[in-house]
Each structure stands twice: as structure tokens, then as C-alpha cells.
Design brief:
- The chain is α+β, with helices and mostly antiparallel strands.
- It has a single domain, classed as Hotdog Thioesterase (Thiol Ester Dehydrase, Chain A).
- It is 18% helix and 44% strand.
- A four-stranded antiparallel sheet has the order 1-4-3-2.
- The longest helix is centred in the N-terminal third of the chain and has 9 residues.
- The chain is elongated.
Length: 84
């Protein structure tokens, strides 16, 4: 939160990363990320961060949603590559 009680961009990234399985985090690195800001998350609201596999086990589609307003706040896509 900033001084105006706005969620900053780093928080959206943190919420996005919380959805990545530990196996991916431990064995892969994030090769790319593409994010889209849709609307502001509201202070005090419940936020849900979801991820689903794209057609590849190492690619994820992300959605961050404000459950109180039932609005999508942000979307994204991450691609992960093997560390080895």
C-alpha cells in the first residue's frame, strides 16, 4: 500500500507468484512475464489470485480478482524455464 492506500504494482506481482507451485519455483526460473492492469484492488477487500496451466506445464495464465466487487484487477502470463 502507498500513502493513499492504493495497492502498488509489486503487490500484484507478489499475488501472482503465490499461485506458482513450489515444484516450479524450486526447479525453474521465470523466463518471461506479461501482466495487464485492469482496475485497482480496494483496501480491505478480499483478493483471490488464481493460476492455470496454459497448454504447457511451464506456462501459466494468471487472474487476480477482487471478490467483494467480483471484478478482475489484473491478468498475466508467466513462462518458466528449467534451471538445469
Amino acid at each position: 500500500m502507498d500513502s493513499n492506500k492504493h495497492v502498488n504494482n509489486l503487490r500484484y506481482l507478489q499475488w501472482l507468484l503465490e499461485t506458482i507451485p513450489n515444484e516450479i519455483m524450486d526447479n525453474f526460473y521465470m523466463h518471461s512475464i506479461d501482466g495487464r492492469y485492469v482496475r485497482e484492488a480496494q483496501y480491505g477487500h478480499t483478493i483471490e489470485s488464481l493460476a492455470e496451466h496454459e497448454n504447457d506445464v511451464h506456462k501459466f495464465i494468471h487472474t487476480i480478482k477482487d471478490l467483494d466487487s467480483n471484478q478482475v484487477c489484473s491478468t498475466g502470463r508467466t513462462v518458466w524455464r528449467n534451471r538445469a
